[in-house]
Amino acid sequence: MGDYSWGYRLADVDLEELSRLYRIAPLGHKPPEALATVFGNSRFTCFVRAGDVLVGAGRALADGGDCAYIADVAVHPDHQGQGLGSDIIRELLQLARGHKKIILYASPGTEPFYRKLGFLHMNTAMAVWADPDPAVRNGLLRPEA
């Protein structure tokens, strides 16, 4: 998996650095306290460093048998396009192996990337979001007519 070091413990990660990674990836503003909660409640986490710099991260919620959900995969812009995002997804898939289904939601236009990693399009996925308007504008949610 390249010239990177991989870690799996949230306790070994500076949450300010993790928050910065999401901001510059760019995956939005995720405050350190929120990241502590969501990563702390995730069964599987992985963190990737190039030297002493955090350059990748991801997590998966999982129930231990039926369902796992991959979320918050981020790669530093200087390391994008080199396969690191794919490696993080593959690692989370490996960590969650044995679950009957592993899901994620893809931003519009990224479906071919996930297909190459073995994901298939779901026809019946639905969601309730706390603030659906931005997701509708970005094409993640489709309002009913």
UniProtKB/TrEMBL annotation:
<dbReference type="InterPro" id="IPR045039">
    <property type="entry name" value="NSI-like"/>
</dbReference>
<dbReference type="GO" id="GO:0005737">
    <property type="term" value="C:cytoplasm"/>
</dbReference>
<dbReference type="InterPro" id="IPR000182">
    <property type="entry name" value="GNAT_dom"/>
</dbReference>
<keyword id="KW-0012">Acyltransferase</keyword>
<feature type="domain" description="N-acetyltransferase">
    <location>
        <begin position="8"/>
        <end position="143"/>
    </location>
</feature>
<dbReference type="GO" id="GO:0008080">
    <property type="term" value="F:N-acetyltransferase activity"/>
</dbReference>
<keyword id="KW-0808">Transferase</keyword>
<dbReference type="InterPro" id="IPR016181">
    <property type="entry name" value="Acyl_CoA_acyltransferase"/>
</dbReference>
<protein>
    <submittedName>
        <fullName>GNAT family N-acetyltransferase</fullName>
    </submittedName>
</protein>
<dbReference type="Pfam" id="PF00583">
    <property type="entry name" value="Acetyltransf_1"/>
</dbReference>
